[in-house]
Design a protein that fits this description.
3 helices, mainly alpha
């Protein structure tokens, strides 16, 4: 499964993973996977890219279940708007 190219900054991915972790219906395992993604993004965009590829290769169904749970709670539906520097 080919992943879409990353189009956000590492900081934006950290924010998105942090928002996702507020989902109340995640299991401990799901929380651990998302925490790994957040921590990888905090290190660098390259680390995040490697972590997401690994997650999708090995835990795709779990990740999509997490996405569904988050969206059902109204989370992670759109990217937060960041001020653009002119």
């Amino acid at each position: 499964m080919a992943l879409n190219p990353l189009t956000r900054t590492a900081e934006e991915y950290v924010e998105a993973m942090s928002e996702w972790l507020t989902c109340k219906k995640l299991t401990n395992f799901e929380t651990a996977l998302i925490s790994i993604l957040r921590d990888a993004a905090a290190k660098s965009i390259g680390e995040f890219d490697e972590a997401r590829a690994h997650m999708m290769r090995n835990y795709a169904l779990v990740i999509w279940n997490c996405v569904s749970k988050g969206r059902a709670e109204g989370l992670c539906k759109e990217w937060k708007k960041h001020a653009e520097v002119a």
